Amino acid sequence: MRAHRWLILAVMLAGCSGPAPVPQPQVFAPLDYSYLPPIVLKVANLNVVNNYVPSADEGALIAQDPEPPATALLAMLNRRLVASGTPGTGTVSVQVASINQVNGNLVGAMTVDINLASADGRSTGFAEASVSASQTAPDPDSGQMPAALYAVTKQLMDNMNVQLQYQIQHNLGPFLSLAVAPGVAPLAAGPAGAIQATPLTAPTGTPPVVPGVPAAPVNTNPAVPSYLPGAGPAALTPSTAP
Question: Distance of alpha carbon 131 from its chain centroid, rounded?
Fold first, then answer.
């Protein structure tokens, strides 16, 4: 009789528990930096190429990333770097776009090289931007690896947008143009908390700000690298070079 009662109780408890909840799929917003100002270089054309080839293990890890580093980086470079139409060529090379798992951490790195040449093929300018980011790797069985990889990629991209503009400003200043190239869409407002472009303190001898060029918005992103001499990249300034 007691066994019968236990059986009835077990059946009642099983009926009350109901089916297990179905986990909701994670949604990751595309990493879009189209709201940042374009960087216009005085060349006729810009070629963006990916020279980075991940190892087999790294490729398997990156395949879990909703926004692979190379994909996000190439999209940003193709959007932000614009040719003004002045004679000359530019090659923008992705040298590194990696995320590796090292000693329990996800470690990411990005490196972009920019080579400019005159119309007759002579090298006229070079700049390189490198950034890194890391965070603790989640347990492989937790289901949190895609979110962790996405977070590392976002940190890399935020840092790269700052560092890229900074390095171009300081190494390719004579080849910067304030004129908006044909076909470049007007800027949109950035999302809340997004990386922003802000001016650095101008060094002695820097040309004055051009009237009519709006000031860049204030940077409120704590991810801006502290090694830059300011809160963000310098505003693009005109040059007297042809």
Answer: 10
- Residue 241: how many CB atoms within 10 A of its CB? 12
Per the prediction, the chain carries an average pLDDT of 77
> Does residue 162 form part of some domain?
yes
In-domain check, residue 84? yes
Taking residues 157-176, report their average pLDDT: 95
Instruction: Report yes or no on 16 lying in a domain.
Output: no
pTM: 0.70
In degrees, rounded to 5, the angle at the alpha carbon of residue 115 between the alpha carbons of residues 114 and 119 is 140
Q: What is the pLDDT of residue 227?
A: 37
106 lies in which domain range? 37-181+218-242
Question: Do 88 and 45 contact (CB within 8 A), yes or no?
Answer: no
Q: Name the domain count of the chain.
A: 1
- β-pair type (105-117, 89-102): antiparallel
Residue 209 counted as domain residue: no
- Predicted confidence (pLDDT) per residue in 174-224, tens digit: 999 875 555 544 434 344 444 445 433 333 333 433 333 333 333 444 443
